Amino acid sequence: MRVLCCVLLLLLAPMHSYAQAESLEQARQDSLAITEADDFVTASLLVATPSDVLYSCAGHACIRMQCPHYDLDVVYSYEADSVTNKVLTFLSGGLRMGMTIVPTERMMAYYAGDGRGVTEYVLNIPLEKRKQLWQYLDGKVEEGVNLPYDYLNRGCAVACLRAVRTAVLPDTLSFGEWDEKFIKKTRRTLLRNQIDAFPWNRFFLFTIVGTEADQPCAVTDKVVVYPDLIDVLRKATLGGQPVLGEANILVNQTVNVEEIGWLTPMLMACVLLLLAVVSCFWMQGALSLLLLVLQSAIGLLMTYLIVFSTLPVTNFSWLIIPFNPLPLLLWHWRRWWLLPFAVICIGWSIAMLAQTENPLVDNAHIILVLALAINYIGQWYQLREIKLNKQ
Protein backbone atom coordinates (compact mmCIF):
# COMPACT_ATOMS: atom_id res chain seq x y z
CA MET A 1 0.00 0.00 0.00
CA ARG A 2 2.82 2.36 0.83
CA VAL A 3 4.46 1.58 -2.49
CA LEU A 4 1.25 2.36 -4.34
CA CYS A 5 0.91 5.75 -2.61
CA CYS A 6 4.48 6.68 -3.48
CA VAL A 7 3.86 5.75 -7.11
CA LEU A 8 0.73 7.93 -7.22
CA LEU A 9 2.58 10.87 -5.68
CA LEU A 10 5.36 10.57 -8.23
CA LEU A 11 2.80 10.53 -11.06
CA LEU A 12 0.87 13.56 -9.69
CA ALA A 13 3.96 15.74 -8.98
CA PRO A 14 4.66 16.64 -12.65
CA MET A 15 0.98 17.41 -13.17
CA HIS A 16 1.01 19.76 -10.13
CA SER A 17 4.20 21.47 -11.30
CA TYR A 18 2.72 21.89 -14.77
CA ALA A 19 -0.49 23.38 -13.34
CA GLN A 20 1.53 25.74 -11.12
CA ALA A 21 3.66 26.85 -14.06
CA GLU A 22 0.56 27.34 -16.15
CA SER A 23 -0.96 29.46 -13.36
CA LEU A 24 2.18 31.61 -13.10
CA GLU A 25 2.26 32.08 -16.87
CA GLN A 26 -1.38 33.10 -16.84
CA ALA A 27 -0.70 35.61 -14.04
CA ARG A 28 2.21 36.99 -16.05
CA GLN A 29 0.05 37.31 -19.13
CA ASP A 30 -2.69 39.02 -17.11
CA SER A 31 -0.19 41.42 -15.57
CA LEU A 32 1.29 42.17 -18.99
CA ALA A 33 -2.19 42.78 -20.37
CA ILE A 34 -2.87 45.26 -17.57
CA THR A 35 0.39 47.21 -18.04
CA GLU A 36 -0.08 47.27 -21.80
CA ALA A 37 -3.65 48.55 -21.60
CA ASP A 38 -3.89 52.11 -22.84
CA ASP A 39 -5.51 53.29 -19.60
CA PHE A 40 -2.79 51.73 -17.40
CA VAL A 41 -1.32 55.17 -16.76
CA THR A 42 -2.53 58.61 -17.79
CA ALA A 43 -0.59 61.86 -17.75
CA SER A 44 -1.87 65.41 -17.63
CA LEU A 45 -0.66 68.94 -17.15
CA LEU A 46 -2.03 70.92 -14.21
CA VAL A 47 -1.84 74.72 -14.07
CA ALA A 48 -2.79 76.90 -11.10
CA THR A 49 -3.70 80.57 -11.20
CA PRO A 50 -1.40 83.12 -9.52
CA SER A 51 -1.46 84.36 -5.96
CA ASP A 52 -0.07 87.59 -4.57
CA VAL A 53 2.78 85.75 -2.81
CA LEU A 54 6.17 86.44 -4.39
CA TYR A 55 7.06 82.87 -5.36
CA SER A 56 3.65 82.12 -6.90
CA CYS A 57 2.68 85.43 -8.49
CA ALA A 58 3.34 83.90 -11.92
CA GLY A 59 1.11 80.87 -11.26
CA HIS A 60 2.26 77.26 -11.26
CA ALA A 61 2.47 74.25 -13.56
CA CYS A 62 2.99 70.59 -12.64
CA ILE A 63 2.34 67.10 -13.99
CA ARG A 64 -0.29 64.65 -12.77
CA MET A 65 0.16 60.88 -13.18
CA GLN A 66 -2.69 58.40 -12.58
CA CYS A 67 -2.48 54.61 -12.44
CA PRO A 68 -5.89 53.09 -11.54
CA HIS A 69 -4.43 49.57 -11.33
CA TYR A 70 -2.19 50.58 -8.42
CA ASP A 71 -4.67 53.15 -7.14
CA LEU A 72 -2.14 55.95 -7.64
CA ASP A 73 -3.03 59.58 -8.32
CA VAL A 74 -0.11 61.93 -7.69
CA VAL A 75 1.32 65.26 -8.78
CA TYR A 76 4.98 65.83 -9.63
CA SER A 77 6.02 69.40 -8.94
CA TYR A 78 9.21 71.41 -8.48
CA GLU A 79 8.95 72.87 -4.99
CA ALA A 80 11.08 74.76 -2.48
CA ASP A 81 10.76 76.29 0.94
CA SER A 82 8.77 79.48 1.10
CA VAL A 83 10.88 82.43 -0.07
CA THR A 84 8.79 84.71 2.11
CA ASN A 85 9.98 83.00 5.27
CA LYS A 86 13.61 82.69 4.16
CA VAL A 87 14.42 85.85 2.23
CA LEU A 88 18.04 86.02 3.42
CA THR A 89 18.62 82.36 2.62
CA PHE A 90 17.08 82.94 -0.80
CA LEU A 91 19.25 85.99 -1.52
CA SER A 92 22.40 84.14 -0.46
CA GLY A 93 21.66 81.30 -2.87
CA GLY A 94 21.17 78.79 -0.06
CA LEU A 95 17.54 77.97 -0.78
CA ARG A 96 17.03 74.53 -2.35
CA MET A 97 14.44 73.13 -4.68
CA GLY A 98 13.66 69.81 -6.30
CA MET A 99 11.00 67.56 -7.73
CA THR A 100 8.48 66.39 -5.15
CA ILE A 101 5.59 63.96 -5.34
CA VAL A 102 2.29 64.87 -3.66
CA PRO A 103 -1.11 63.13 -3.66
CA THR A 104 -3.39 65.00 -6.06
CA GLU A 105 -6.13 65.27 -3.45
CA ARG A 106 -3.80 67.09 -1.08
CA MET A 107 -2.56 69.41 -3.84
CA MET A 108 -6.12 70.31 -4.86
CA ALA A 109 -7.07 71.01 -1.24
CA TYR A 110 -4.07 73.36 -0.93
CA TYR A 111 -5.07 75.41 -3.97
CA ALA A 112 -8.74 75.41 -3.01
CA GLY A 113 -7.79 76.73 0.42
CA ASP A 114 -5.95 79.64 -1.25
CA GLY A 115 -8.86 80.31 -3.58
CA ARG A 116 -6.71 79.56 -6.61
CA GLY A 117 -8.09 77.83 -9.67
CA VAL A 118 -6.64 74.63 -11.15
CA THR A 119 -7.11 73.46 -14.74
CA GLU A 120 -6.11 70.09 -16.17
CA TYR A 121 -4.99 69.28 -19.73
CA VAL A 122 -4.57 65.61 -20.65
CA LEU A 123 -1.30 64.82 -22.42
CA ASN A 124 -2.17 62.86 -25.55
CA ILE A 125 1.03 60.87 -25.88
CA PRO A 126 1.35 57.08 -26.46
CA LEU A 127 1.33 54.69 -23.50
CA GLU A 128 5.04 53.91 -23.84
CA LYS A 129 5.84 57.64 -23.69
CA ARG A 130 3.63 58.06 -20.62
CA LYS A 131 5.61 55.28 -18.91
CA GLN A 132 8.85 57.01 -19.85
CA LEU A 133 7.48 60.26 -18.44
CA TRP A 134 6.61 58.46 -15.20
CA GLN A 135 10.13 57.01 -14.97
CA TYR A 136 11.69 60.39 -15.72
CA LEU A 137 9.68 62.12 -12.99
CA ASP A 138 10.46 59.36 -10.46
CA GLY A 139 14.14 59.81 -11.29
CA LYS A 140 13.91 63.55 -10.58
CA VAL A 141 12.23 62.82 -7.24
CA GLU A 142 15.09 60.45 -6.32
CA GLU A 143 17.57 63.29 -6.90
CA GLY A 144 16.08 64.99 -3.85
CA VAL A 145 15.38 68.61 -2.96
CA ASN A 146 19.00 69.72 -3.21
CA LEU A 147 19.20 71.88 -6.33
CA PRO A 148 19.89 75.63 -6.11
CA TYR A 149 16.67 77.63 -6.27
CA ASP A 150 16.67 78.73 -9.92
CA TYR A 151 13.35 80.39 -10.73
CA LEU A 152 14.38 81.14 -14.33
CA ASN A 153 16.22 78.07 -15.62
CA ARG A 154 14.42 75.51 -13.49
CA GLY A 155 10.99 77.08 -13.10
CA CYS A 156 7.78 75.07 -13.27
CA ALA A 157 6.87 75.85 -16.90
CA VAL A 158 10.39 75.16 -18.19
CA ALA A 159 10.56 71.95 -16.12
CA CYS A 160 7.22 70.63 -17.40
CA LEU A 161 8.08 71.27 -21.04
CA ARG A 162 11.51 69.69 -20.54
CA ALA A 163 9.92 66.60 -18.93
CA VAL A 164 7.49 66.06 -21.82
CA ARG A 165 10.20 66.58 -24.45
CA THR A 166 12.48 64.09 -22.67
CA ALA A 167 9.72 61.52 -22.24
CA VAL A 168 8.94 61.27 -25.96
CA LEU A 169 12.55 60.58 -26.97
CA PRO A 170 13.81 59.34 -29.38
CA ASP A 171 10.84 61.02 -31.04
CA THR A 172 10.52 64.79 -30.91
CA LEU A 173 7.65 67.20 -30.47
CA SER A 174 6.76 69.33 -33.44
CA PHE A 175 5.96 72.87 -32.27
CA GLY A 176 5.07 74.32 -35.63
CA GLU A 177 5.67 78.03 -36.04
CA TRP A 178 6.65 79.75 -32.81
CA ASP A 179 4.81 82.89 -31.80
CA GLU A 180 6.70 86.07 -32.62
CA LYS A 181 6.99 86.99 -28.95
CA PHE A 182 9.25 83.99 -28.31
CA ILE A 183 11.55 85.18 -31.07
CA LYS A 184 11.72 88.86 -30.13
CA LYS A 185 11.09 88.93 -26.38
CA THR A 186 13.49 88.03 -23.60
CA ARG A 187 12.69 85.82 -20.64
CA ARG A 188 12.56 88.90 -18.41
CA THR A 189 9.92 90.51 -20.65
CA LEU A 190 7.83 87.34 -20.87
CA LEU A 191 7.90 87.04 -17.08
CA ARG A 192 7.04 90.71 -16.70
CA ASN A 193 3.93 90.33 -18.87
CA GLN A 194 2.66 87.63 -16.51
CA ILE A 195 3.23 89.52 -13.24
CA ASP A 196 2.19 93.05 -14.26
CA ALA A 197 -0.72 92.83 -11.83
CA PHE A 198 1.75 92.64 -8.93
CA PRO A 199 3.93 95.78 -9.18
CA TRP A 200 5.76 95.24 -5.87
CA ASN A 201 6.65 91.65 -6.78
CA ARG A 202 7.73 92.80 -10.23
CA PHE A 203 9.87 95.58 -8.74
CA PHE A 204 11.59 93.15 -6.36
CA LEU A 205 12.22 90.52 -9.03
CA PHE A 206 13.52 93.08 -11.52
CA THR A 207 15.83 94.37 -8.79
CA ILE A 208 17.51 91.02 -8.16
CA VAL A 209 17.33 89.42 -11.63
CA GLY A 210 20.54 90.02 -13.57
CA THR A 211 21.34 90.29 -17.25
CA GLU A 212 21.18 86.52 -17.81
CA ALA A 213 17.43 86.96 -18.13
CA ASP A 214 18.05 89.27 -21.11
CA GLN A 215 20.48 87.02 -23.01
CA PRO A 216 19.54 85.01 -26.12
CA CYS A 217 18.66 81.38 -25.41
CA ALA A 218 16.89 78.42 -26.97
CA VAL A 219 13.30 79.26 -27.79
CA THR A 220 12.03 76.38 -25.64
CA ASP A 221 13.82 77.89 -22.62
CA LYS A 222 11.73 81.04 -23.02
CA VAL A 223 8.59 79.22 -21.92
CA VAL A 224 8.88 80.54 -18.36
CA VAL A 225 5.21 81.10 -17.43
CA TYR A 226 2.29 78.69 -17.54
CA PRO A 227 0.07 80.58 -20.06
CA ASP A 228 2.92 80.39 -22.59
CA LEU A 229 3.39 76.70 -21.76
CA ILE A 230 -0.26 76.03 -22.57
CA ASP A 231 -0.07 78.03 -25.81
CA VAL A 232 3.05 76.16 -26.95
CA LEU A 233 1.73 72.68 -26.13
CA ARG A 234 -1.61 73.42 -27.78
CA LYS A 235 0.23 73.88 -31.07
CA ALA A 236 2.59 70.94 -30.48
CA THR A 237 2.09 67.56 -32.13
CA LEU A 238 3.67 64.13 -31.79
CA GLY A 239 3.42 61.87 -34.80
CA GLY A 240 0.90 64.26 -36.29
CA GLN A 241 -1.39 64.07 -33.25
CA PRO A 242 -2.07 67.04 -30.89
CA VAL A 243 -0.19 66.74 -27.61
CA LEU A 244 -2.60 68.66 -25.39
CA GLY A 245 -6.21 67.76 -24.70
CA GLU A 246 -9.12 70.00 -23.81
CA ALA A 247 -9.19 72.02 -20.60
CA ASN A 248 -10.92 70.54 -17.56
CA ILE A 249 -11.40 72.76 -14.52
CA LEU A 250 -10.62 70.84 -11.32
CA VAL A 251 -10.77 73.72 -8.83
CA ASN A 252 -12.70 76.92 -9.39
CA GLN A 253 -10.95 80.17 -8.57
CA THR A 254 -12.76 81.85 -5.71
CA VAL A 255 -10.37 84.71 -4.95
CA ASN A 256 -9.74 87.52 -7.43
CA VAL A 257 -6.06 88.13 -6.80
CA GLU A 258 -5.13 91.75 -7.39
CA GLU A 259 -2.53 94.08 -5.97
CA ILE A 260 -4.04 95.50 -2.79
CA GLY A 261 -3.61 99.21 -2.12
CA TRP A 262 -2.78 102.24 -4.18
CA LEU A 263 0.84 102.60 -3.05
CA THR A 264 2.92 101.16 -5.88
CA PRO A 265 6.66 101.44 -6.59
CA MET A 266 5.95 103.76 -9.51
CA LEU A 267 3.86 106.11 -7.37
CA MET A 268 6.56 106.19 -4.70
CA ALA A 269 9.23 106.89 -7.31
CA CYS A 270 7.17 109.72 -8.84
CA VAL A 271 6.66 111.29 -5.40
CA LEU A 272 10.40 111.15 -4.75
CA LEU A 273 11.06 112.70 -8.16
CA LEU A 274 8.68 115.56 -7.37
CA LEU A 275 10.29 116.04 -3.96
CA ALA A 276 13.72 116.05 -5.59
CA VAL A 277 12.64 118.98 -7.78
CA VAL A 278 11.21 120.79 -4.75
CA SER A 279 14.35 120.08 -2.71
CA CYS A 280 16.41 122.11 -5.14
CA PHE A 281 14.81 125.13 -3.43
CA TRP A 282 13.62 123.86 -0.05
CA MET A 283 14.28 121.10 2.54
CA GLN A 284 17.11 119.56 0.60
CA GLY A 285 18.83 117.99 3.60
CA ALA A 286 15.99 115.67 4.62
CA LEU A 287 15.35 114.35 1.13
CA SER A 288 19.05 113.97 0.40
CA LEU A 289 19.39 111.76 3.46
CA LEU A 290 16.37 109.69 2.43
CA LEU A 291 17.64 109.19 -1.13
CA LEU A 292 21.13 108.38 0.11
CA VAL A 293 19.75 105.70 2.42
CA LEU A 294 17.58 104.27 -0.39
CA GLN A 295 20.41 104.30 -2.91
CA SER A 296 22.85 102.76 -0.43
CA ALA A 297 20.40 100.01 0.58
CA ILE A 298 19.74 98.98 -3.03
CA GLY A 299 23.45 99.41 -3.83
CA LEU A 300 24.54 97.14 -1.00
CA LEU A 301 21.98 94.55 -2.12
CA MET A 302 23.22 94.70 -5.72
CA THR A 303 26.86 94.43 -4.62
CA TYR A 304 26.08 91.44 -2.42
CA LEU A 305 24.14 89.63 -5.16
CA ILE A 306 26.77 90.20 -7.83
CA VAL A 307 29.92 89.65 -5.76
CA PHE A 308 29.03 87.31 -2.90
CA SER A 309 25.72 85.52 -3.52
CA THR A 310 25.46 82.17 -5.31
CA LEU A 311 21.84 82.83 -6.26
CA PRO A 312 21.41 81.99 -9.97
CA VAL A 313 20.76 84.81 -12.47
CA THR A 314 22.52 87.49 -10.41
CA ASN A 315 25.84 87.57 -12.24
CA PHE A 316 25.48 91.23 -13.30
CA SER A 317 22.80 93.91 -13.26
CA TRP A 318 22.60 97.31 -14.93
CA LEU A 319 21.25 98.63 -11.64
CA ILE A 320 24.74 98.49 -10.14
CA ILE A 321 25.66 101.65 -12.08
CA PRO A 322 23.25 104.08 -10.35
CA PHE A 323 22.73 101.95 -7.23
CA ASN A 324 26.05 101.23 -5.54
CA PRO A 325 27.66 102.00 -2.14
CA LEU A 326 30.21 104.50 -3.52
CA PRO A 327 28.14 107.66 -2.85
CA LEU A 328 27.86 106.63 0.79
CA LEU A 329 31.59 105.84 1.06
CA LEU A 330 32.65 109.02 -0.74
CA TRP A 331 30.08 111.36 0.79
CA HIS A 332 32.74 113.57 2.38
CA TRP A 333 34.12 114.39 -1.10
CA ARG A 334 30.72 114.78 -2.73
CA ARG A 335 31.39 118.22 -4.20
CA TRP A 336 33.78 116.53 -6.67
CA TRP A 337 31.48 113.75 -7.87
CA LEU A 338 27.90 115.04 -7.46
CA LEU A 339 27.63 116.58 -10.92
CA PRO A 340 29.48 113.83 -12.85
CA PHE A 341 27.46 111.15 -11.11
CA ALA A 342 24.21 113.02 -11.87
CA VAL A 343 25.18 113.12 -15.56
CA ILE A 344 25.89 109.38 -15.48
CA CYS A 345 22.47 108.75 -13.89
CA ILE A 346 20.71 110.81 -16.57
CA GLY A 347 22.59 109.01 -19.34
CA TRP A 348 21.75 105.65 -17.73
CA SER A 349 18.05 106.59 -17.56
CA ILE A 350 17.99 107.57 -21.24
CA ALA A 351 19.65 104.28 -22.18
CA MET A 352 17.14 102.28 -20.13
CA LEU A 353 14.17 104.20 -21.55
CA ALA A 354 15.40 103.33 -25.04
CA GLN A 355 14.85 99.62 -24.29
CA THR A 356 11.14 99.74 -25.10
CA GLU A 357 10.72 96.25 -26.56
CA ASN A 358 12.67 94.42 -23.86
CA PRO A 359 13.02 96.60 -20.73
CA LEU A 360 16.13 95.85 -18.70
CA VAL A 361 14.79 97.34 -15.45
CA ASP A 362 11.46 98.29 -13.94
CA ASN A 363 10.14 101.73 -14.87
CA ALA A 364 10.12 102.65 -11.18
CA HIS A 365 13.90 102.15 -11.14
CA ILE A 366 14.32 104.74 -13.89
CA ILE A 367 12.20 107.32 -12.07
CA LEU A 368 14.17 106.71 -8.86
CA VAL A 369 17.44 107.26 -10.69
CA LEU A 370 16.13 110.50 -12.19
CA ALA A 371 15.17 111.61 -8.67
CA LEU A 372 18.74 110.86 -7.55
CA ALA A 373 20.17 112.81 -10.47
CA ILE A 374 18.04 115.91 -9.83
CA ASN A 375 18.80 115.81 -6.13
CA TYR A 376 22.53 115.54 -6.77
CA ILE A 377 22.41 118.43 -9.22
CA GLY A 378 20.58 120.49 -6.59
CA GLN A 379 23.19 119.59 -3.97
CA TRP A 380 26.03 120.45 -6.34
CA TYR A 381 24.48 123.82 -7.14
CA GLN A 382 23.96 124.69 -3.48
CA LEU A 383 27.51 123.68 -2.55
CA ARG A 384 28.76 125.82 -5.40
CA GLU A 385 26.70 128.79 -4.17
CA ILE A 386 28.04 128.35 -0.65
CA LYS A 387 31.61 128.33 -1.96
CA LEU A 388 31.04 131.47 -4.06
CA ASN A 389 29.44 133.30 -1.11
CA LYS A 390 32.45 132.49 1.06
CA GLN A 391 34.71 134.02 -1.53
Order of helices and strands: HEEEHEHEHEHHHHHEEEHHHHH
Kindly report the average pLDDT value. Answer: 87
By DSSP, the count of extended strands is 9
Poorly predicted runs are: 24-33
The residue fraction in helices comes out at 40-55%
CATH class of the largest domain reads Alpha Beta
Percent of residues in β-strands: 5-15%
Question: In the CATH hierarchy, what is the architecture of the largest domain at level 2?
Answer: Alpha-Beta Complex
Question: Termini, distance in Å?
Answer: 138 Å
Tally of distinct domains = 2
CATH superfamily of the largest domain: endopeptidase domain like (from Nostoc punctiforme)
| Major β-sheet profile | 7 strands, antiparallel
- The largest sheet has its strands arranged as 6-4-3-2-1-5-9
How is the CATH topology of the largest domain named?
A: endopeptidase fold (from Nostoc punctiforme)
Q: What is the gyration radius calculated from CA atoms?
A: 30 Å
Number of helices: 14
* Structural class by helix and strand composition: alpha+beta
Globally, the shape reads elongated
Describe this protein's structure.
The longest helix is centred in the first third of the chain and has 35 residues. Helices cover 52% and strands 13% of the residues. The strands form 2 sheets. Strands 6-4-3-2-1-5-9 form a 7-stranded antiparallel β-sheet. The protein has a two-stranded antiparallel ribbon with strand order 7-8. β2 and β3 form a beta hairpin. The chain folds into 2 domains: 210 residues, endopeptidase fold (from Nostoc punctiforme); 126 residues, no CATH class. It contains 14 helices and 9 strands. With 391 residues, the protein is α+β, with helices and mostly antiparallel strands.
